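Sample pair:
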Amino acid sequence: QVQLVESGGGLVQAGGSLGLSCAASGTSFAFHSMGWYRQVGGKQRELVAQITGRDSTYYADSVKGRFTITKALAKNTVYLQMDSLEPDDTGVYYCSGYYVDTNRYYWGQGTQVTVSS
């Protein structure tokens, strides 16, 4: 059974930094891509950053220049460095892993990030 476990969330003041990490277990196949999504309240989960096995990255406009996603996909591990945090960055951050062959996403349990003003 594939499981993704996030760590590193918490409470930080605006302007501060936090780092998130996510490690997958239960699979020996590298994900095609891994990413971080954010969910605020009952709103739809939104993609914040994504990275592929070929180091292609995507960032939401709201986090460009402040967040950095890196990976060790051979180990199915992904990291998100969040700098210059803003109150609007508050939310539950979910790690995802995607297998293109099966067109299937796997999700972590989520970690809370709260940025106080």
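DSSP finds no helices and eleven strands in the chain.
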